[in-house]
Each structure stands twice: as structure tokens, then as C-alpha cells.
Design a protein that fits this description.
- The complex is a heterodimer of chains A (497) and B (173).
- Chain A has 497 residues and is α+β, with helices and mostly antiparallel strands.
- Chain A contains 14 helices and 21 strands.
- In chain A, a hairpin with a 7-residue loop joins strand 18 and strand 19.
- With 173 residues, chain B is mainly α.
- In chain B, helix 1 crosses helix 6 and helix 2 crosses helix 6.
- Chain B starts with 13 loop residues before the first helix and ends in a 35-residue tail after the last helix.
- Classes of the chains: A alpha+beta (497), B mainly alpha (173).
- At the A-B interface, helix 5, strand 5, helix 6, strand 6 and helix 10 of A face helix 5, helix 6, helix 7 and helix 8 of B.
Chain lengths: 497, 173
């Protein structure tokens, strides 16, 4: 087995790992070696051609089909140089004060996080999208929400040179999305940080990692790995885990850390989501233009958020509930479809957790609480009102039976759309905001790390991803992850400088 | 029969699979033999890396689905007319037994995968996303060098809510 020595090893290159990598460039200038190990490959922009199946296979864990243990929810997790920042829509929100205060993590203040979040908003070109590029799908949401009595807000996004391909979730074909793959990682590499792709960390020991470098398979996306394929022992003074919720807690559990960290894997939340569609009488622009421009935030009042969205035919078909005529009528009306994504704000509960199977693969145990089901129903009713206020003639409502709600039924929305129609396994639910599993806190009694991502009892080990969240964030999490990762990097610099 | 975990997963269950498709897909009649071959190829490719246990579950579920109607109607699922197939699947869809609901969800997901990933189907339903976005959609809508979102970002400058009160969004949309 090859042995490699470094001063710092960062596992993962997404919002957390990419941020840490860039912030550790000063260490390289001091003559120290910093490695980033990324499980997925390094992609080239020209590989992102919008083919749904091929992109999903290359860009997502389990081709985008990773399921919770009971098979009732799909979890979308990006993999590759840049992690999920390659596949998100670029929506970038600052951490809310009420959430950070409610987390009540000693040593973590909202002011501190907000300052760091603003730094990355600047670095990654976060701004409001110009009105002239907003498509009908988004415009109708804005107008419908206003007419239905809601207060829509515009999403800040991190694009630069967006052509409006609408293919954000399949990787931007124009390199417009300013994720860590475009900003932090290139800067880190220019500063001497080494990024090794196709590097699967199999096991973590005391200041060392067992790593397998995989080959590039013929016909598959991505560049070959930077190191020769094979097994490596990588030794480092400091290890930063930033492989995300399906990477960090399972690796720690598989490596035996669970016996001394009883809270490891607990506190999983994910903003369970589903797609609602509505048919308009005329064609609208929906599969062109940035897909996600507006939201209605009802997280405080009713524990849900509505976001504009636009998905591809297979993902849309899969996420609509049921089959047959009520399903087909919408799929056959694609150019007339408006879409809204419902996100429920879930809470950390004892059952919902991340574990690892014998091979170290992640296993997610998730139960939909009564509160989440009620939030989904309330969100669906609100979305239906927005659709109809925007001029839609019919709405697909997963929590109705039958699922097709016609405009003539607009006064019956409260009676038609109910939580009792939510049947796990029948209603398609997915989640992309995976959080928790290595939460911050005071001691091993209540958490896995302190507020600087230092793992209790292991001064050489840090966590710098959404695993740190003690509970749901209730907004899109990327800037918050980057802000927390910035703190972790600061701690590493203090330790090693 | 192919051994679980190796070789084609559904080749021996083509009859039940296509019978489910006759109810689940919007326009199954639009798939000619070439289309069916393509759909099955897409599905098999997606299943290939799955663990043997998952493939076995899938095969067992399809077999059970085909045989279950024998109990109530004396005919297999394949042998049922289309309207009774639909009624049977609706019962599975709302069954109190979670594995039955989940199994049907899995089968329909595979069928949608094989169907909607065919270029002719995507064209038929009017899906037209293009990597060139607005440029492809409206020709010269965006002029080179006139991109409003190219401003170097100095962040969100205070109010990040982006609340557009009034008539902002519809102005140029």
C-alpha cells in the first residue's frame, strides 16, 4: 500500500470541503501540505449536456436514486469536484437569526455566521437575478402568490453569465453557476492545495485514512484520477471531514467512533419535498430560464417553504403521484406546466438518523411526523391557491384523492387537500438539504463536535459540512455550510500556524 | 432464468412489466417494438449496478403482482383487461401495506425512466430545454456582453430578502 503524508487532509470538496481548502492556502505558503480527497470525479463543463439519465448517473450518488431505509424518500446528493454545489440551483440564503439562536450552540453566534456568510456571497457572485431574464414559470408564481395573499421573495443566486438553460440540477452547461468547483477549489489549487478525485475514504484511524483511488471507466463522465488507482494510507496531523451527511457520519461510525460519540448519526433532518405542477391554458416559458427565482417562506407560521422549480421529464413523472389519466394529463401538457416545490421544515427527532451498513455505506432512517405531514398539506393548499390565482386550470396535488384538482374546485381546496392522503411509498418525496448527524454542542452528552467543528475527544479531527447542523436550517443551506466551514478552517489555521 | 445480480433482471418478466406499463404510461401504444427495446435497455442499464438483493426484490414483486389477481378474479394480472389492471394497481397504490405501495412506486419509476428518457417521447410531450437556453429559445434575445448577471458580486448588500413589491417581476418577463 502506498503511504502519503500531509499536514491537513480534507475529505470532500463541496460547500464545506471546498471552502476549507481555499481558506487553508496560507498553510501551503508556510510550506505545509494540504490534500483534498474527493470521492467523485472532476468534470468538464462541456460534459454537462443536459441528458437527464447520463448526468444523473455521473453527478449524483446512486444516480440520484438513493432511498431512505424504508424506501419512502429519495435523497439527492451530488458527487464530484465541487460536491452538491455542482448540481444545486445556486440559491444562496444567509443563515436566519431565529434558527441559529434556537440551535443554542455555545460559542456560535448569528452575527459571526452572518459575517462569514456575506464574505462568500461576495466571493461567489451572489445577487438577485435580473428581472428581464425571469421566465413565465417564475413570474406566474410571483403574481399568483401576491394575488393569493402571500409575500413572495426573490432568491439570491450565485450565477455569472447564465444563459438560462434551466439545466442547473444536471450541472450547468455554461459554467455559470459559481459553486466551489468554480471559485474556491480553483483558488485553492492555484495556491498549492492538492485535490485528488475518485478518492474513496474507506476507513478513518488515528490521524490516518485508508483510501482507494478508483479508475476512470471507459465511457463514463469525468477526468481520470490525479493519483494512480490503488489503495493508499494517508497520514495527516489534522483531518477535516466534509463529505456531507451521507459521508461524514457513516465514515465515523464505520471506523468505530460511535462507541465514544453516542450522538453520532443522530439529529438527521432534510426538508422533505415534493413537486406540484399545474396546467395553464397556454404555453409558458418553463424549460428555459433560471428555474428558481422566487420563494414563499412560511417556515415560522406553518413550517413550510414554497419555491419555484422546473424539472426534467423523468424526474417530473417520477415525482408526480400515481399513474393513469390523472398523471398523464399533466405530463402531456409539459409546455403549459407551472411547477412549485414544497419543502417541509422538519425537526430532529430520535428516530431520524444516519447509520452505516457493514460495508460503510450510508443508511438513512426517516419517519414522517404528524407535523411534517400537516406542513406538507398546508403547503400544498397554499401552492394550489397560488397556481389558480396565476391562471392555472388544474393542479396536481399529491395529498388529494383524486390528485387532479380542477379550477372549479378552488373553493374546496381545504376539503380536497388533506394530510390523511399522505401515504409514504405512494407519494413521491425527495430531499436535497441533508443536515445533521454530527451536530455541534457542548459535550459528547449532547453532540459530536463543538462550535468550531472539533470532534469531542479528538483534537486532530474536525467536521466541516451540514452534518454539523443541530437541527433543520429551514432555508437552502449552502452559505451556512460555507460559513461554518470558514470557522473550521480558522481553527485549523490557529492549530497549525 | 437469469441469476439474481447477474445478467438481465427483467427479461423473463417482460409480460407483467409491459402489462403494468399499459396502465402506468401515458401513451404506451406510442411505443413500437423499437421503443420497447430502448425502454428495456434503459431500465436494465439502471438496474445493472444495483445489489443482487434489490434485483431479487424487484423480480419477486413483479411475480407476486402478476399472481395476486388470481385470488380474486382467477386470472393473472397479464390476463386482465386494461380497466381491471388499472383498478388492481389503484388498490396497490393505496394499500395499507407499505411494501406493496413502495413496490408499485418502484416499478412505475423504472417504467417512467425507460419511457421519458427516449428523445422521441421528450419531443412528443414538448420538452425543449437546451444548453444554450434563451439563445436557443429566442435567437438573439441575449446579446453578447449585455448580461445583467455578470456584475462582479459584492454580495447581497443588506437586504437579502429580495422582496419585489409591486409589479417588479412582470415588467420584462
Amino acid at each position: 500500500m502506498n503511504t502519503v503524508t500531509a499536514d491537513v487532509v480534507v475529505v470532500g470538496s463541496g460547500a464545506g470541503g471546498g471552502t476549507v481548502a481555499k481558506e487553508l492556502v496560507p498553510l501551503v505558503r508556510q510550506g505545509k501540505r494540504v490534500l483534498v480527497l474527493e470521492r467523485g470525479p472532476r468534470f468538464r463543463d462541456e460534459e454537462f449536456d443536459g441528458r437527464e439519465l447520463e448526468m444523473a448517473e455521473g453527478l449524483y450518488l446512486d444516480s440520484g436514486g438513493f432511498l431512505t431505509a424504508d424506501g419512502a424518500m429519495t435523497l439527492a446528493v451530488g458527487q464530484g469536484y465541487g460536491g452538491s454545489t455542482v448540481t444545486y440551483t445556486g440559491t444562496s440564503m444567509h443563515p436566519p437569526a431565529r434558527i441559529i439562536d434556537a440551535w443554542d450552540v455555545p460559542g456560535l453566534s448569528h452575527d459571526d455566521l452572518l459575517g462569514r456568510s456575506k464574505k462568500y456571497a461576495g466571493e461567489n457572485n451572489v445577487h438577485l437575478f435580473p428581472e428581464k431574464e425571469i421566465n413565465d414559470n417564475n413570474r406566474l408564481f410571483f403574481e399568483g402568490a401576491k394575488a393569493a395573499g402571500f409575500s413572495p421573495k426573490q432568491f439570491p443566486v450565485n450565477v455569472k453569465g447564465c444563459l438560462g438553460s434551466s439545466l442547473c440540477n444536471l450541472g450547468c452547461p455554461n459554467g455559470a453557476k459559481q459553486g466551489t468547483h468554480k471559485v474556491q477549489l480553483p483558488e485553492a489549487e492555484a495556491g498549492g492545495v492538492e485535490v485528488i478525485t475518485r478518492a474513496d475514504v474507506l476507513e478513518l484511524g488515528d490521524r490516518q485514512l485508508k483510501v482507494r483511488i478508483g479508475p476512470k471507466s471507459a465511457g463514463k463522465m469525468g477526468d481520470p484520477p490525479e493519483w494512480e488507482p490503488g489503495e493508499y494510507l494517508v497520514k495527516a496531523d489534522v483531518v477535516v471531514l466534509a463529505g456531507g451527511v451521507l459521508g461524514t457520519p457513516p465514515l465515523l461510525l464505520h471506523s468505530g467512533f460511535g462507541s465514544r460519540l453516542p450522538k453520532l448519526g443522530q439529529g438527521f433532518t432534510c426538508h422533505p419535498a415534493f413537486i406540484l405542477v399545474a396546467e395553464h391554458p397556454e404555453d409558458i416559458t418553463n424549460d428555459v430560464g433560471h428555474p428558481k427565482s422566487f420563494l414563499v417562506d412560511r417556515s415560522v407560521e406553518e413550517k413550510y417553504v414554497l419555491e419555484t422549480c422546473m424539472y426534467f421529464p423523468f424526474v417530473t413523472a417520477k415525482n408526480l403521484t400515481g399513474f393513469g389519466p390523472d398523471h398523464a394529463v399533466f405530463m402531456n401538457a409539459y409546455p403549459r406546466l407551472q411547477m412549485i416545490l414544497v419543502l417541509a421544515c422538519d425537526r430532529a427527532i430520535p428516530h431520524n438518523r444516519v447509520t452505516a451498513d457493514r460495508a460503510g455505506n450510508p443508511v438513512v432512517h426517516y419517519r414522517f411526523t404528524k407535523e411534517v405531514k400537516e406542513a406538507m398539506a398546508a403547503a400544498t393548499r397554499a401552492a394550489a391557491r397560488i397556481f389558480f390565482a396565476a391562471g392555472a386550470v388544474r393542479v396536481h396535488a399529491p395529498l388529494a384523492d383524486p390528485t387532479r384538482v380542477e379550477k372549479a374546485e378552488v373553493d374546496r381546496i381545504d376539503a380536497r387537500i388533506l394530510a390523511k392522503y399522505f401515504l409514504p411509498g405512494s407519494v413521491s418525496v425527495s430531499a436535497a438539504h441533508l443536515m445533521g448527524g454530527a451536530g455541534m454542542g457542548i459535550s459528547i452528552e449532547d453532540s459530536v463536535t463543538d462550535s468550531w467543528g472539533r470532534v469531542h475527544g479528538y483534537p486532530w479531527l474536525r467536521v466541516a459540512d451540514a452534518s454539523l447542523f443541530p437541527d433543520a436550517l429551514e432555508i437552502n443551506p449552502y452559505l451556512t455550510i460555507m460559513a461554518l466551514a470558514d470557522r473550521v478552517a480558522e481553527g485549523v489555521l490557529e492549530t497549525l500556524s | 432464468m437469469a441469476e439474481p445480480g447477474r445478467g438481465p433482471v427483467l427479461s423473463s418478466l417482460r409480460g407483467p412489466l409491459r402489462a403494468v406499463a399499459s396502465v402506468v404510461l401515458p401513451s404506451p401504444e406510442a411505443l413500437d417494438e423499437e421503443g420497447w427495446t430502448e425502454a428495456e435497455k434503459i431500465i436494465e442499464k439502471a438496474l445493472a449496478p444495483k445489489p443482487a438483493g434489490v434485483k431479487l426484490q424487484l423480480r419477486l414483486f413483479l411475480r407476486a403482482l402478476n399472481l395476486l389477481p388470481l385470488v380474486t378474479s382467477g386470472r393473472t394480472f397479464v390476463g386482465l383487461p386494461r380497466d381491471r389492471r388499472a383498478a388492481f394497481l389503484r388498490r396497490l397504490h393505496s394499500s395499507p401495506i407499505m411494501p406493496l405501495r413502495r413496490g408499485l412506486w418502484g416499478i412505475r419509476t423504472l417504467l417512467f425512466m425507460g419511457y421519458y428518457n427516449q428523445p422521441r417521447v421528450r419531443e412528443a410531450i414538448g420538452y425543449g430545454a437546451d444548453p444554450w437556453g434563451w439563445t436557443a429559445h429566442f435567437g438573439e434575445r441575449l446579446e453578447e456582453g449585455n448580461r445583467a448577471d455578470d456584475e462582479s458580486g459584492d454580495g447581497m448588500e443588506g437586504d437579502q430578502s429580495g422582496d419585489r413589491s409591486g409589479d417588479g417581476a412582470e415588467a420584462d418577463a
